[in-house]
Amino acid sequence: MTLQERTEIEEWLRPESKxxxxxLSEPEFVRGLMWGKPRFGHPEGKVLYHVREVLDNIDRLxxxxxxxxxxxxxxxxxxxFKHLEDKSGYxxxxxxxxxVFARQFLQAYTDDCGLLDLVELHDEAYYSWRHxxxxxxxxxxxxxxxxxxxxIGAHRQRYxxxxxxxxxxxDKNQAPLKWFEKTISSIEIVDF
Length: 192
Hints:
Layout: H1 3-13, H2 18-23, H3 27-33, H4 47-59, H5 65-77, H6 98-106, H7 113-121, H8 124-134, H9 138-152, H10 156-167, H11 175-183
Helix pairs in contact: 4-5, 4-10, 5-7, 5-10, 6-7, 8-9, 8-11, 10-11
């Protein structure tokens, strides 16, 4: 990592914990933060800038410090391996999804399965919505949603909070978030 990259990363992300600082020293992680060009959903370009938007949203939440710390950690890693993702094959190889790589990376730092699941599944609500509302694949969408809910179990609120913080960035479509808030009765809606 160049000195200029380190300076830019620290200015944008403002690491707060020893763990956040440690993660920022990993070369492959840094490559992922610096990856990206403006595109639909992410007009900000670099993953680094998206992570900052998610962190700003987390700061708007009325939550306690342990939950804030967990959500910050998820924000740091959730999209930081998009540069490794391969979307060229059909059917898509979901074992090479950026969220799987992020989970594998984070496993070196925590054994909290709920947190690891959140990282791996952070886009699942969107994919469920997409099957239901864009592709009109009701069975597949409902199965995907049920699988998500089964995996996150008692952590639905934490999942929802991160999904909201991630979705309320860039120029992302807000319909999946609105659908999730209407569909999942076991969450407490939070606005910011």
